[in-house]
Specification:
Layout: E1 4-9, H1 28-50, E2 55-60, E3 78-81, E4 98-104, E5 124-129, E6 132-133, H2 136-145, E7 151-157, H3 158-167, E8 172-179, E9 185-187, H4 190-204, E10 220-226, H5 229-238, E11 243-244, E12 249-254
Parallel strand pairs: 1-2, 1-4, 2-3, 4-7, 7-8
Antiparallel strand pairs: 5-6, 5-10, 8-9, 10-12, 11-12
Helix pairs in contact: 1-4
């Protein structure tokens, strides 16, 4: 029996990552964080195969991708990167039996969440669809759900896991750290976090067909609120299809869930 699994990765929710500077490419601490990321993603891959997966695709999605050094990665999996914000889950389609979300963070404005943000911490204040606020976790659930692909497991900080549970309560959640401020966190040793992720990934394979894909009814009224009017100015220059509701809020209505990230 074929079992095809998609793995979505981010960096802020990886065990061992404790500072904002570790998440910015070009800084010395970033390379150390990438090693933590590689180990935790490899643990997820190992668990998936132990649980019966026959094929795994990993989407390296922190920043512009290319955080994983493939010579350090599990050779059984295949790897891709996102092509910008609007392609949040590259190559996802109906052929996958489920997806795992590794190393994630909570949405912008979440209290006691490590490096909470939605797409861009500097410019995005809030992002809503049909009046409901979503972060990247919710966006991914919706985009995968459009292909009837459910999130089987998520790992990250406690706030990210709680956010996921409100949207997909049957998914397994693995909290590898707990924040007590935006850039302050009580973190597990990376080795322990990896073992927790491996076990949860293996268990998650038993949830295929049991966790429902996350969907909402359209049309989709998308509202993006920026932190500064200048950010809204810049976006509107290149996207005349957006309606500007006020100095910082942009609106876009679509019937296609694949277009919910068009305002970015």
């Amino acid at each position: 029996m074929n079992m095809k699994i998609y793995i979505m990765t981010d960096l802020e929710g990886i065990s061992g990552v404790r500072r904002a500077s570790e998440c910015k490419s070009g800084l010395d601490e970033y390379q150390k964080a990438c090693r933590y990321l590689e180990n935790e993603v490899n643990a997820a891959i190992e668990g998936a195969f132990e649980g019966g997966a026959t094929e795994v695709l990993v989407c390296d999605s922190h920043g512009s991708g290319f955080n994983l050094d493939l010579k350090n990665m599990d050779k059984r999996a295949r790897y891709c990167e996102n092509n910008g914000i609007k392609e949040l889950m590259a190559l996802i389609d109906e052929s996958f039996d489920g997806y795992l979300n590794i190393g994630h963070h909570a949405k912008a404005g979440t209290i006691n969440a490590f490096l909470d943000h939605t797409q861009c911490g500097e410019s995005v204040f809030d992002y809503k669809i049909n009046g409901v606020s979503y972060g990247e976790i919710g966006q991914q659930l919706l985009l995968a759900g459009d292909y009837d692909v459910a999130q089987l497991m998520i790992s990250g900080d406690k706030a990210a896991c709680e956010e996921s549970t409100t949207l997909s309560p049957d998914s397994i959640s693995v909290s590898v750290k707990e924040a007590y401020g935006n850039n302050k966190v009580n973190c597990l040793p990376p080795e322990l976090g990896c073992e927790m992720v491996r076990k949860a990934s293996k268990e998650a394979m038993s949830l295929i067909g049991k966790v429902k894909p996350f969907k909402i009814d359209g049309p989709y009224d998308v509202q993006l609120t920026l932190t500064r009017t200048r950010f809204a100015d810049n976006i509107c220059k290149n996207k005349p299809f957006l309606e500007r509701l006020d100095g910082r809020t942009l609106r876009y209505v679509t019937n296609d869930i694949k277009e919910i990230l068009m305002p970015f």
